[in-house]
UniProtKB/TrEMBL annotation:
Pfam families: 3Beta_HSD. The chain crosses the membrane at residues 282-301. The keyword Ribosomal protein does not apply. Belongs to the 3-beta-HSD family. This is 3-beta hydroxysteroid dehydrogenase/isomerase domain-containing protein.
């Protein structure tokens, strides 16, 4: 198998750290790893570094830095993204990083003769205002109309970026070759180095005397262990090396983490912090109406005081919404198979979440 160099944008982040770890241990064809991020790369997972790593500090909005980083690279894992589901998200930043940043990566790949581009999208790109998705596949789900995304501008900008990546498939690169692209759509992820999901739930529970779960009825959420998601990125790049027929496509990414509501899923990670997980839950709809009322108040004062909160209405509504997906396509075409069972994933995640301090 032809050997070469890979570039990971966002490699210093949550998913990126795990992708880099697997590139070190499970990608014999990779000789060198470059990491392009806004912060210096530090090995936070403690794995053995078998291959040279070059940390490049830069923004995906800096076209010159991107083009320099892509020189001599065979494949790019584009993981950089802006996540903002606050009450009032920064739409300008979302468009800049997620859309323009991705376009800059594509152009840098073309000029740098990069052969393969694997993009990190999200299942949120197919979730419309109704919210509910039951065992969704790439053929049974569709892209919502403009401004009808359940997770608002965040999901809409990720979808625009995904569209750019998939349209770039087969485009010419500087040396006369072709750029091959595909997009992976993980569900919400948990595990070591998580900052936004379980970590935020634990933070809220530990710092609020009034923490209560919310009764979400029969709704369930699908979560994926981050190392399994990272493994799918390697499977995608490996398969794309020898099979151009899979290029230009999108794939859902999930594993065998049990389907349950958010608070049931979080109970083991709350217990290790001494949180009472058996408190009587709050009724769902009164909480939703409270947040709508809060939104109305903040909408009036936001232009003057710029006061914002980290929990948007979409996050509250998601607690009462079923969102499940199938990764059969990835398993069939990318030969993806989760490398960690749920029990293994939970045990390793517990070790991380137990260390959180607030």
């Amino acid at each position: 198998m032809e050997k070469g160099t890979v570039l990971v944008t966002g490699g210093a982040g949550f998913l990126g750290q795990h992708v880099v770890e697997l590139l070190q241990s499970s990608a014999e064809h990779v000789t060198d790893i470059r990491i392009f991020d806004m912060e210096p790369y530090i090995n936070k997972l403690g794995y053995q570094e078998r291959k040279p790593v070059k940390s490049i500090i830069g923004s995906v909005l800096d076209t010159g830095a991107l083009q320099e980083a892509c020189k001599g690279v065979d494949a790019v894992f584009h993981l950089t993204g802006c996540v903002d589901t606050r009450m009032f998200p920064d739409v300008q930043k979302l468009n800049a990083v997620n859309v323009q940043g991705t376009e800059n990566v594509i152009q840098a790949c073309k000029k740098g003769n990069v052969k393969r581009l694997i993009y990190c999208s999200t299942v949120d790109v197919v979730i419309g205002r109704d919210g509910h998705v039951f065992n969704g596949t790439e053929t049974t789900t569709s892209i919502p109309q403009k401004s009808c995304f359940f997770f608002g501008p965040y999901a809409e900008t990720k979808q625009k970026a995904e569209e750019l990546v998939l349209k770039a498939n087969g485009s010419d690169i500087a040396n006369g070759g072709k750029l091959r692209t595909l997009s992976l759509r993980p569900t919400v992820m948990y595990g070591e180095l998580d900052k936004y999901f379980v970590t935020e739930i634990v933070r809220t529970a530990c710092t609020s005397k009034f923490f209560r779960p919310i009764n979400s009825g029969s709704s369930v959420l699908q979560c994926t262990y981050v190392r399994n998601a990272a493994w799918c990125f390697l499977c995608a790049e490996r398969t794309l090396r020898g099979d151009n027929s899979i290029a230009g496509q999108s794939f859902f990414v999930c594993d065998d983490t049990p389907l349950t509501n958010m608070f049931e899923f979080s109970k083991p990670y709350l217990r290790v912090h001494g949180i009472d997980v058996n408190k009587k839950p709050l009724p769902f709809w009164p909480v939703v109406y409270l947040f709508y009322f809060l939104w109305c108040i903040l909408w009036v004062i936001f232009p003057v005081f710029q006061f914002n909160i980290s929990i948007g209405i979409c996050s509250i509504l998601s607690l009462g919404t079923t969102m499940t997906f199938s990764s059969n396509k990835a398993q069939t075409l990318l030969l993806y198979k989760p490398i960690y069972s749920h029990k293994q994933a939970q045990n390793m995640s517990l070790k991380f979440y137990r260390t959180l301090k607030f």
